[in-house]
Every structure is written in C-alpha cells, then in structure tokens.
Amino acid sequence: MPALNAQQVIWQTVAAIPFGKVATYGQVARVAGLPNYARYVGTVLKNLPEDTALPWHRVVNAQGRLSFPTGSDAYQRQFALLISEGVVILEGKISIADYAWQP
DNA sequence: GTTGTGACTACCA
DNA sequence: ATGGTAGCCACAA
After folding, report:
1. From CA A2, how far away is CA A70, in angstroms rounded?
2. Are A10 and A28 in contact (CB under 8 A)?
3. Is the entire prediction scored with pTM above 0.85?
4. pLDDT tens figures, A29-88
C-alpha cells in the first residue's frame, strides 16, 4: 500500500505552490500524480481546519477565477490573501504570469 | 447497491 | 460569450 493517501499527496502539492503563485485544481491533481482528481482537491481543501498552514488560497479554477460566489465572504478572504501576496487579478481573472505551472 | 452532492473540467451547441 | 452535459472521485444517505 502507498505510504501516502490521495489526500496527503494533495496536501503536499498544495504546500509546494510558491508564495505569490497560484495553481488550478486540475493542475494540483495532475502534479500530485492523480489525474481526474480536480474535484476531490476541492473537497480536501474544504475540509481543512481554519488554522491550517496550507496555502489553500493559491488554488483557483481552470478559468483563473476563485471558485466561490463573487462577493461572498469566502471569496473576499481568498481574494485578500492573494492580493497580499502580490498576485495580480484583473476583471476577476488571475494573470498567466502568476501560475506556478503554466496552464 | 443506488443516488445526490460538490472549493472541478472539457467539450459542444 | 453562455448554458447544458458528461466524465470524474470520494463520501454521506
């Protein structure tokens, strides 16, 4: 049996996203060696404790947008964190240059 | 076992 | 650009 379960591999991958950079759910899944797990990546992040050290805010959807209803509380929290790291967001979309791995 | 759900995607009309 | 659909995966009913 593998030493790491899917959830742990995902944690590792998210933790590997550099400060000021972002990655899509699909990318995290693929880089983690788990293609087609994009949806599960979201599920894993949702279950993270509030005091987690993981940079969950650096994970966005394939459209380069935050996967929360625009203006919602969660949306604004993630948005603020990204801005604080210098991530450029225009018209709600993240700049290509801010991806840890080219999409 | 089946069904519904969700911080997802890709494809197609 | 926009909306619907079909794959996907894990988990709770």
Report:
1. 39
2. yes
3. yes
4. 999 999 999 999 999 999 999 999 999 999 999 999 999 999 999 999 999 999 999 999
| Tokens representing residue A32 in the block | 């983690």
* Strand C closer than 7 A to residue A37 Cβ: yes
Q: Is the CB of A100 under 7 A from strand C?
A: no
Are A21 and A86 in contact by the 8 Å Cβ rule? The answer is no
Amino acid type, A57: H
Is A20 (CB) below 7 Å from strand B? no
User: Is the shortest CB-to-strand distance from A59 to strand B under 7 Å?
Assistant: yes
Bases in strand B with any atom closer than 7 Å to a protein CB: 6-10
A58 touches strand B (CB under 7 A): no
Q: What is the residue type of A47?
A: N
* Strand-strand pairing, A89-90 and A93-94: antiparallel
Q: Which of A91, A88, A82 is nearest to A19 (CA)?
A: A82
- Position A29 scores a pLDDT of 97
